[in-house]
Design goal:
Layout (H helix, E strand, L loop, with lengths): L5 H6 L7 E4 L3 E5 L7 E7 L14 H17 L7 E4 L15 E5 L9
Antiparallel strand pairs: 1-2, 2-3, 3-5, 4-5
The chain binds adenosine monophosphate and zinc ion.
């Protein structure tokens, strides 16, 4: 838990969010500013600032993050239609929140050149 981290606060329910999935290690909620009909964020509860900060210790956690993404995609009805998973990393990658999160986008045909 990092003081003053928005996603740590959401994970601890100190700030409300529209939660669609939760287990011991992850929370998933609707993005407040969706860019697709389905736009979820999947967040490890552990405070890891970005992909750049991963260590070998996080190997298992990140593997499970993708299994959670797969499960949520199925639950949300986009598994067969298709969807997109994105990590923004750092400034030029468009990362605004410095707590690692996987975007799950779906519900329409997504273009590649612009999101
Ligand atoms: P990124 O640019 O990859 O760091 O993504 C951060 C995402 O968090 C953006 O898509 C924001 O719309 C979203 N966001 C910011 N604040 C909140 C919030 N309080 N609840 C849900 N999503 C949020
Ligand atoms: Zn955090």
């Amino acid at each position: 838990m990092m003081k003053d981290c928005l996603f740590c606060k959401i994970a601890k329910k100190e700030i409300p969010s529209d939660i669609v999935y939760e287990d011991e290690d992850f929370i998933s909620f609707k993005d407040i500013n969706p860019i697709a009909p389905l736009h979820l964020l999947i967040v490890p509860k552990k405070h890891i600032p970005s992909i750049n900060h991963l260590t070998p210790e996080d190997k298992e956690l990140i593997g499970r993050l993708f299994l959670v993404a797969k499960k949520i995609a199925k639950e949300q009805g986009v598994a067969e239609r298709g969807y997109r998973l994105i990590f923004n990393v750092g400034k030029e990658g468009g990362q605004a929140i410095e707590h690692l999160h996987l975007h799950l986008l779906g519900g329409k045909t997504l273009s590649w050149s612009k999101y």
